[in-house]
Amino acid sequence: MTSGTGKRVLLAKPRGYCAGVDRAVQTVEEALKLYGAPIYVRKQIVHNKHVVQTLEAKGAIFVEENEEVPEGATVIFSAHGVAPEVHEQAKERSLKAIDATCPLVTKVHHEAKRFAAEDYDILLIGHEGHEEVIGTSGEAPEHIQLVEGPEDVDRVTVRDPNKVVWLSQTTLSVDETMETVARLKKRLPMLQSPPSDDICYATSNRQHVVKEIAAECDVMIVVGSRNSSNSVRLVEVALDAGARAGHLVDFAHEIDDAWLADARTVGLTSGASVPEELVQEVLTHLAQRGFTDVEEVVTANERLTFSLPQELRRDMKAAEAARS
What we know:
This protein is α/β, with parallel strands linked by helices. It has eleven helices and twelve strands. The protein has helices spanning about 20-35, 50-60, 85-90, 105-115, 130-135, 175-185, 200-215, 230-240, 255-260, 275-285, 310-324; strands spanning about 10-15, 40, 60-65, 75, 95-100, 120-125, 145, 165-170, 220-225, 245-250, 265-270, 295-300. The model has no long low-confidence stretch (mean pLDDT about 95).
């Protein structure tokens, strides 16, 4: 150890922003530049306290429902997706709607519509009340039933065991979801799987690197908000994979020194909606307490990017043409 303190940080990579979150946050920032404040955003654009506060300071107004948006104003739908009725409500109020739904969530919506059109029963694995689950369920409510985890499997009823498929929320624990699917397949041997994995690449990657380092960690610190499903899962994954303790914090100042008292190795990661600056603040906080040796553990390099919503790109192009 170069510092001589014997205290180190294992810094997970990938961590932080995924492509869908980056796109959603950028959508709000570009809309504010293009149209001017205020810009209304239905629900939190992403589940992160710092991001929401930063965008509010720039002129974004976060609302729960379209009814709170003045008629004719611009509204952005969050990265988690919305049910078709939300689009209809926006039209009724003459709102200029920009859909910042993550393309990987949109993929699940398309799967739900396609399987419903083929009259399948759809078992949606996810958390009741989560915005993503509400949005996906809204695509085919009469065909979709929610399965919250392995303990829910015995309650499942289907019309035809030969025509049933499972889909999932994109931010779940990979291991728990596979356990749920395995139990479902015992009950329903003809259960079909989605054409490609619904749990997003970023969620899987962040969980994978945490599993790699957890057993070496006296404490795992996950930077993320409590309403962030993927951040909460990272703490659970760390504990399941052998970390002695795990904590979720929004900011460095929330770290309790008692957590570090007997620790030699601290693991550090962040959820998919967390800006890197918050991780760097935690590293500074830890360094001030003797954890000066930082080893970044890399298990994947993410290069995926998504283009901005087409409604916004069209207006940006028109504004550029008008200027030139």
